[in-house]
Amino acid sequence: MTETVITRFAPSPTGFLHIGGARTALFNWLYARHTGGTMLLRIEDTDRERSTDAAIDAILDGLRWLGITWEGEPVFQFARAARHREVAEGLVAAGRAYYCYATPEELNEMREQARAEGRPPRYDGRWRDRDPSEARPGVKPVIRIKSPLDGETAVDDQVQGHVVFPNKDLDDFVILRSDGTPTYMLSVVVDDHDMDITHIIRGDDHLTNAARQTVLYNALGWRVPVMSHIPLIHGPDGAKLSKRHGALGVDAYRAMGYLPAAMRNYLVRLGWSHGDKDIMSTEEMTEWFDLAGIGRSPSRFDFAKLENLNGHYLRATPDDELFEIFLATLPYLEGGPALVERLDARLKGQIREALPGLKERAKTLNELLDNASYLWAERPLPLDDKASALLDDDARRTLSGLFAVLKAAEPWSVETTEAAVRTFAEANGLKLGKAAQPLRAALTGRTTSPGIFDVLAVLGREESLARIADQTA
């Protein structure tokens, strides 16, 4: 009987959901879906000073925006501290861990001596076999695991391969602090075991942790989950992704106008591949995702690629669906809250009608919002520099003639306005562009826009003629 795959995403709520964390969540989610398993969510909130409710809300919100779901309620690690402590004390009772009464001064001396001898700082095991009765009065002990003194600990990783760690480098690390709180190493192992996690997919900065956690699994007699440590994301310059590269929280990418489907597609290709396929639906990702496709080399975050991919998704998303996404995202976009306040049924209808032309010229929802701004601009329309330069005396005379023929167009539609402008251009020996460009500047305040006859139709007769008249007065 095949075992059901159970993965987990386990963020620390000390800040936003950053892009590396989002990719880790996506990989866990896709692998669970691909195998017919489930993904669980664990909030590792044991750092009480830095963990905040706001960060927890931001992480949950970011996952939901990306469309990444989890099974059941999130598990909060701090709430399980009593269970972690019980396991640590059980290891002491079994002779696989011990109370260490080394003072902070002694530990500092060990570090200084190691530094002086050019060695990495390691605990020297001085309390491994001593009786607690030898301890100084008043010293609160920590609990340390009895790591193997010789030999090696191996991690058979699905991405990194067979990785070997000399046990002399792992030392007897702390699993329970002197105040009775568990360390990260212990909490993670106990939680993964108790949650029946079968596969751990996380960043390769945890690879050394995997060796120590394997020591704990072996001491407890528990099976080690299948591990996959994925390379970190780097910036375009090859350095580890940081704030200077724009490594922001997922919420920032929503505010920059990226679509969740585009983000999923972009993130899945950061470190995983399926042939030379770059654009893939979530259904295709789910069907194809496997651990063997994850590469060992760090991937590079490229905003230009993300923008181009997002532009593809804007154009490919059905208009009604895109309209709903646009309305839902408006509160987060630059200038969006102001538009939300003035949105009425008429303006919503105009935006929806203009959407097919708007989405062809935008790469983000912010660009789409900016390109649509002519719809609610107050008269007299502000002109950008190019539009202002375009509307010279000749152009304004052309506009005067166009005003007259457009005023007579019946009924007002894409077809009738186009026929009127074409007839005017031919009668005056003008190429269509020579008539259309002044019209575009007068109607939108810019020299680029959706199709000019679509603009006329969306604005309507009264508003269109008023804007033309403003530029001919």
TrEMBL record:
One of the GO biological process terms: glutamyl-tRNA aminoacylation
Stretches assigned to the Glutamyl/glutaminyl-tRNA synthetase class Ib catalytic domain: 5-307
Q: Per the database record, which ranges form the Aminoacyl-tRNA synthetase class I anticodon-binding domain?
A: 341-470
Predominant localisation class: cytoplasm
In this chain, the stretch annotated as Disordered covers 111-138
| Biased composition regions of type Basic and acidic residues, renumbered to the chain | 111-134
Q: Binding of ATP: at which residues?
A: 243
Assigned keywords, A-Z:
Aminoacyl-tRNA synthetase, ATP-binding, Cytoplasm, Ligase, Nucleotide-binding, Protein biosynthesis
**The UniProt record lists the keyword Coiled coil:** no
Single GO cellular component term? cytosol
Any Pfam family from its record, for instance, is tRNA-synt_1c
* The family this protein is said to belong to: Belongs to the class-I aminoacyl-tRNA synthetase family. Glutamate--tRNA ligase type 1 subfamily.
* Protein name as annotated: Glutamate--tRNA ligase
Q: What organism, scientifically named, is this protein from?
A: Segnochrobactrum spirostomi
Lineage, broadest ranks: Bacteria, Pseudomonadati, Pseudomonadota, Alphaproteobacteria, Hyphomicrobiales
